[in-house]
Amino acid sequence: MAAELDSGQFLALLKRRRSRREFTRQDIDQPKIERALQAAMRAASGANAQPWLYVLIERGTLRDSIREHCERADEDFHKRSPPWLKQFFADHQITPVKQFTETAPLLVAVFGKRDFPFWLQSVWLSIANFINALEVEGLHSLTYTPSLDKQFNKLIGVDESYSCQALLPVGIGNPEEELQPRPRKPLSESVKVLGSDGKLREFEPTLPFEP
Ligand SMILES: Cc1cc2nc3c(=O)[nH]c(=O)nc-3n(C[C@H](O)[C@H](O)[C@H](O)COP(=O)(O)O)c2cc1C
Questions:
Q1: For ligand 1, which residues put their CB under 6 angstroms from it?
Q2: In DSSP terms, which residues pair with 107 in a beta bridge?
Q3: Spans of the chain, pLDDT less than 50
Q4: What is the pTM (predicted TM-score) of this model?
Q5: Angle at Cα 94 formed by Cα 88 and Cα 96, nearest 5°?
Q6: Fewer CB in a 10 Å sphere around the end CB: N or C, the chain?
Q7: How far is CA 132 from the centre of its chain?
Q8: How far apart are CA 52 and CA 38, in angstroms?
Q9: pLDDT 10s digits, 89-125
């Protein structure tokens, strides 16, 4: 039987995973992506409806049109963003230019079937499994969420009852990419306890936590 991850290894894996925005053109082995997809399928979902559809987009002629769609959608989104988000984009050098849509060996479009209960929550749980499983396989990804309309469905050939939730470049990240720190808030900030006295109080962590 394969060795199982212990809790420390699992936490280290989650900490190691980073969004990557620059990809090499290096191809990826099918078993790696297949295992990550198996992990995605294992997600919990409302009524076990599994309302997701993963479309693996290989490099080819459609990539240019996809890039155009994404960049147009992102330009609009950046223009409409509130000042704090504009600042986040500026601080983290996130621009509407989507080079990775061209370079990554795979672009994975994740759709949700809108007519199932809790479809949105379920799709996102599945994406979480997917990106963490990619990390186990030594692959990198970006959870990229352009606001894509039905024209995108048409371009890809996917029924309009599905909504594209994320487009993830998957491959080997450029080792030269400079990753900005993305510290996590401590548990004391994001966790509360509702005590047996009915009062909400601070959670007091006992374990070390590296942001
Ligand atoms: C729901 C969601 C939407 C996101 N959308 C985008 C996006 O459109 N463009 C982008 O560059 N990063 C996007 N990200 C990546 C986040 O910026 C990133 O996960 C966050 O800054 C933490 O960094 P890390 O993933 O490297 O730990 C998204 C992440 C999530 C979970």
A1: 18-19, 21, 94, 142-145, 182
A2: 57, 169
A3: none
A4: 0.95
A5: 125
A6: N
A7: 9
A8: 13
A9: 998 888 899 889 999 999 999 999 999 999 999 999 9
